[in-house]
Amino acid sequence: MQTNITNPLGNRKTLFLLVAFLCSIGLLAQKPMPVRDFEIRLDADEKITSEIKNQMRVNLETGFPLALYGLNYDVPSGTPEAMAMYYIQKESETFGIKKQEISNLRHHATRTTNAGSVVRYRQYSGIYPVNKAELTISISPQNKVVFVMNSYELNVQMAQVQPTVTQERAFQLAHNYLDVKTPISFQDSRLMVYKNTKMTRLAHEVTILSDNPVGEWHVFVDAQTEEIFKVVDMAHYYCGHKKGAHTSDCHDEKEVSETGSFRRATGTGMVFNPDPLSSNTVAYGTSGYVDGGDANTTALNNARFSVVLRDITLTGGTYSLVGPRAEIVDHEAPFDGLYS
């Protein structure tokens, strides 16, 4: 589940992107964005089929876990990074990571609170980061690994591959492909390994924020052939709906009217702020603070706060979390629908 506007405060580059985006294309809140026919989406090839088995979510293609829940794995006391690496060295093969491949994991972030530490490692193939491939270890204050997220990509052998397309050339190809007609608000590029279920490529991911074509464009350029094989707009746009509900054609042009069958309303709701572990300074695995497959516990219910929800949608007596500038969108499996 994901809202259309995310909190950018943890990253200055993200904050800059958001500010630049809002300043340059602020009128987007008034009109949905139609799908552009030059986008190249690889959603089907990127889809990962998984299911819950016991206390883990398993990738059905590889058989390895994407997540391990409710762990209580003791590690020797030390720095968060030392404790996480101890766990990795002992349990790497649980995730399909051979012992000689542990060196492919490079630490890139640690966050420590009273509830424990979260240590993140990014997968590399040689000097190249592998797109969206990480191993994330959550450790309690009692020095126990309690939760692990895994997106490590198997069989990536790109360390010896050399790019023949320069960063400058990749940007020019992306710029020409998008046919950018206005000054660029922000641009970036990184050389990385792109992998999905059908292909593995060394690629430049070029980011261009522009007004025409409007969007935050991510263009993937093959670093050896110059082929542009993926083009996506990562911006989320407001979608005005007469019924106040998100639909799959969210980006299609449509009439927006407050005089239809819904109206804006003010309500109240119970929310976590920011999450039950942080607000109550407890560790995951404490009684009542575990993933129960969406089952309620007294501890989780009591960790919520009552807040005012302004400008939500009222339709036929049902309140939905759809507002004039943001809406909750269920964009990945399992599809649980919208909150109402």
Give a structural overview.
- It is a single chain.
- 15% of the residues lie in helices and 34% in strands.
- With 340 residues, it is α+β, with helices and mostly antiparallel strands.
- Among the domains are: 1-33 and 236-340, no CATH class; 64-150, no CATH class.
- The strands form four sheets. Strands 2, 3, 4, 5, 6, 7, 8 and 9 form an eight-stranded antiparallel beta sheet that branches. A four-stranded antiparallel beta sheet has the order 10-11-12-13. The chain has a three-stranded antiparallel beta sheet with strand order 14-15-16, with no helix packed on it.
- The longest helix has 13 residues, at 12-24.
- The chain starts with a strand and ends in an 11-residue tail after the last strand.
- Residues 1-31, 242-248 and 252-260 have low confidence and may be disordered.
Q: What are the key terms here?
A:
disordered N terminus, four-stranded antiparallel β-sheet, about 15% helix, about 350 residues, alpha+beta, 6 helices, about 35% strand, eight-stranded antiparallel β-sheet
User: Helix fraction?
Assistant: 10-25%
Helix tally equals: 6
Through-space gap between termini: 13 Å
How would you characterize the largest beta sheet? 8 strands, antiparallel
- Work out the radius of gyration: 22 Å
Provide the succession of SSEs: EHHEEEEHEEEEHEEEEEHHEEE
Indicate the mean pLDDT: 82
Tell me, briefly, the overall form. Answer: flat
Which structural class fits the helix and strand makeup?
Answer: alpha+beta
Q: List segments where confidence is low: pLDDT < 50 over at least 5 consecutive residues.
A: 1-31, 242-248, 252-260
